[in-house]
Amino acid sequence: MGIEVGGLLGLVILAFDIYAIIKIINSGASTISKVIWVLVILVLPVLGLLLWLLFGPK
Questions:
Q1: Which of 23, 33, 48, 57 has the greatest number of C-beta atoms within 10 Å?
Q2: Which pairs count as long-range contacts for 39-45, CB under 8 Å and 24+ apart, including other chains?
């Protein structure tokens, strides 16, 4: 059962990460800011998403 829960949680995190990356790319921020945020989310999926939610969108 642990595998299914972990897989489902991973899928949810992946969906939120994809949503955040799309929002970042479509934002009016500078190109370097977009690249940095996308890299942070790709390298640290959970922490990067939380940081983006706290500090990214205005």
A1: 48
A2: 41/17, 42/17, 45/13, 45/14, 45/17
